[in-house]
Backbone:
């Protein structure tokens, strides 16, 4: 993954992994061995292509603030953190709509 994202965006530190492997309520726990942190849709595409070619399971993770454990790995999936994709791309004040990236 480092060749796609750079080593600073591939997390294997157990202390940091704990927060990504546990839901916000600390009810669900997974064993994902790595967190990858793409910044662009192109990087997401490359990571998913890499995982697909190797048949690696992936779980996407936004803010990991859900209450049902949907963003926590069930087993040992690769955690695709979207936290770096955090740009607001448009605001429509009349319609009350904000367009933003998933992180």
Residues:
């Amino acid at each position: 993954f480092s060749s796609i994202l750079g080593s600073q965006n591939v997390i294997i530190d157990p202390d940091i992994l704990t927060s990504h492997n546990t839901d916000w309520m600390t009810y669900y726990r997974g064993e994902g061995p790595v967190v990858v942190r793409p910044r662009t849709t192109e990087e997401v595409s490359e990571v998913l292509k890499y995982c697909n070619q190797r048949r690696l399971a992936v779980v996407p993770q936004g803010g990991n603030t859900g209450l049902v454990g949907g963003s926590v790995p069930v087993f040992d999936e690769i955690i695709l953190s979207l936290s770096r994709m955090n740009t607001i791309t448009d605001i429509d004040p009349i319609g009350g709509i904000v367009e933003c990236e998933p992180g």
In short: The longest strand covers residues 88-92. The radius of gyration is 15 Å. Residues 4 and 46 are 7 Å apart (CA to CA).
